[in-house]
Amino acid sequence: MLPGFGLSFGFTLAWLTLIVLIPLATIFLKAAGLGWSEFLAVGFSPRAMAAYRLSFGTAAMAGLVNAVFGLLVAWVLVRYDFPGKQVVSALVDLPFALPTAVAGIALTALYTPEGWIGQFLEPLGIKVAFTWIGISIALVFIGLPFVVRSVEPVLADLGREVEEAAATLGATRWQTFRHVIFPAIGPALLTGFALAFARGVGEYGSVIFISGNMPGRTEIAPLLIVTQLEQYAYAGATAIAVVMMLASFAVLLLINLIQAASRRRMGA
Amino acid sequence: MIQLRGITKRFGDYPALHGIDLDVAPGEFIALLGPSGSGKTTLLRIIAGLEFQDGGSVLLGGEDVSSLPVARRHVGFVFQHYALFRHMTVADNVAFGLSVRRGKDRLPKVARLARAEELLRLVQLEGLGSRYPGQLSGGQRQRVALARALAIEPRLLLLDEPFGALDAKVRKDLRRWLRDLHKQMGLTSIFVTHDQEEALELADRVVVMNQGRIEQIGAPDAVYMNPETPFVSHFVGETNRLPTTSGEIHFRPHEITLAPDGAEALLVDNVFRKGAVWRAEGLLAGSGQFVELDLPSSGEAPRLGETIRFNPHRARMFTADGAQTQGESR
Amino acid sequence: MSGRSPTTEGPLARALLIAAALGFLGFFLLLPLLTVFSEALRQGAGPFLDALHTADALAAIRLTLLIAAISVPLNVAFGIAASWAITKFQFPGKALLITLIDLPFSVSPVVSGLIFVLLFGANGLFGAWLAEHDLKIIFAVPGIVLATVFITFPFVARELIPLMLEQGKDDEEAAISLGANGWQTFWHVTLPNTAGACSMVCCCATRAPWASLARSRSSRAICGARPTRCRSISRFSTTSTISSAPSRSPLSLRCSRW
């Protein structure tokens, strides 16, 4: 038995309480001041519900896109050699480094009907900027590194032996991927998706430019909080914040439970 | 039946195999024995199709499979670290080869699982089908890996250091078990090992490899008793070497006759019991060469500092270029 | 006589996969980046560089380094303690603890900004007490440090947990069996084993406050060509909510009065 459990666990819990739990508790405290009926009225008003639907829906959509393409990018970076690989690898971190508002402005500029991409979509009748599609694109931008950086190390660590074993048993390359590789990197992919999703739900800076902010249609939940603040409705802002936080927390907890279960099962 | 014809392989500038020729008869159990870097694992992987040779050809049952990918060679391969699929149950691992089949060869799921259960019974893991590999011991994992390889009814079974990662006791049990299984099934098998004891105990024929070449092919007894090269003499079994002007004389620790007027004299500086014999170690008077001798343990243990006079009675002489010039005693 | 290794794809599949990945990256990352540069340099490089050399920008850089110097060691210490407890021991509620550590990842920057205003703002929980003792947290270095620590809180633990999990505890147990005490084991075995990841984590954790600060500052520099949008930019993200000068940010001004 290693020493240090008391110290490390105690310190973890104390710091967690001080930095995360107490601050978050103030939100709940403030929201509790509203009273139940008013909390429901503000937190679940039609406008708020539309905002949640938009925020969670677009974040899930972007998370899925990132899960597919993030896996592809991680695969290509780990498995293949091609000129400029280092540059591509560095490019993946760009959304971490670029101020989100800058990203938002850049994406908006790209997708407005006069933009570099928007001008080609406009004649086809596809509107991106100021619609949910635009919001999803911004969230894809923000979330990509989470998926790539979660999957990459696991993919790199995956032993070649299991793939060879599958091949000797007659599996095609696709069957090997589907039945052997994918389940092995599944937990990491799920983590990446969860992080991208959680980040997407709360994202503000990069979204509000491209979203158009029409109440009930393209108004994201974080913006609703800001709007409430601007109307001095602080308790209302905290009510919406509480609903968002609980939902995010539930998603994260679910995913961590799945991971813990799969780790136990594999006896690691 | 396997025929290897002039197999060569290079890894960059490093020549791994220089023209390997080998014939394996149906039902034979072959050991590829050699130190690490001798090319034995590379050769095994080339036979499986996990690696491709630069020159030469691989024939399985008369058919040239040199360009056939591994998935179509129907060769069972047991990996050194088992390479079990950790997220699948033991039964799913064993049935994997059946479940990836397509078309008319595809068995229904019930039949696949029945087959898996049958194989688990064969490897004495009945009832463990619903466990995960992480929940098994090393020896059990090894047998799952074997059952998985056998599930595809391979025409040939290849095992890479099959007992390398196991502890001594399990290793010994599994060895005996594998030999019995081979007798029972009669499947042509090749295994790679660096452990000469393992090779001598299990194999019908031992292929001794060194630096990408075959040094000797023969029955275990022949390889041990009549090594054809200094390398084989030294690598298989224990050997004392006496340098002479024209080359080296090799003899095993037990291949001696004690004689008061013997030509060699060993000054004993260490003695211990080695199974049924006393092992005496020390330097030879005159040449100062380090030598190990086995003395009957019915007698008294040699004392430290004692001088033992003896003659090697079955020595082999190798000239400097490795050729053997003289078979029996000098 | 050369065949294809069974653990890779054919040249065509490989080319297609690389092309798809690069296409995606080009479309979603490279194009926006190019737009940023084209917008920033629309009026030539001159105004852009001028914006970067203002006293404002230099002060911002100095502030960022100061904040990183305070918050990074705090979070590294926490991350190591947390990953030690989580990976080397079994205890009930582990998944819950990991989720709580992840939580700041998922909390909207808008919400975390709101939290600190609720806590330390003029009418916040500790507002009166702070005013009494003439302490400033919001709109001052302590507030920015707090916000940064909050945001970067999960980084270190998130990086270290998988690594320590993979390394297991064999090395540590060996050290203990050789007579090392807990601290010696930690200093001479665990820390060197995780040093690579630790230094990477420090980069990440430094980047986070940098990025969030840069959000308000450099976006102002970059969108010089679009004055109407500048006003709103300065109030994004936690850090800017409670750090930017009140006169520039209507939101934080209101919050501070509340």
TrEMBL record, chain B:
Keywords: ATP-binding, Nucleotide-binding, Sulfate transport, Translocase, Transport. The lineage of its organism: Bacteria, Pseudomonadati, Pseudomonadota, Alphaproteobacteria, Sphingomonadales. SMART domains: AAA. This is Sulfate ABC transporter ATP-binding protein. InterPro entries: AAA+_ATPase (IPR003593), ABC_SmlMolc_Importer (IPR050093), ABC_transporter-like_ATP-bd (IPR003439), ABC_transporter-like_CS (IPR017871), P-loop_NTPase (IPR027417), Sulph_transpt1 (IPR005666). GO terms for cellular component: ATP-binding cassette (ABC) transporter complex. GO terms for molecular function: ABC-type sulfate transporter activity; ATP binding; ATP hydrolysis activity. One of its GO terms (biological process) is quaternary ammonium group transport. Pfam families: ABC_tran (PF00005). The keyword Nucleotide-binding applies. NCBIfam families: 3a0106s01. It comes from the Bacteria. Residues 2-236 form the ABC transporter domain. Gene3D superfamilies: P-loop containing nucleotide triphosphate hydrolases.
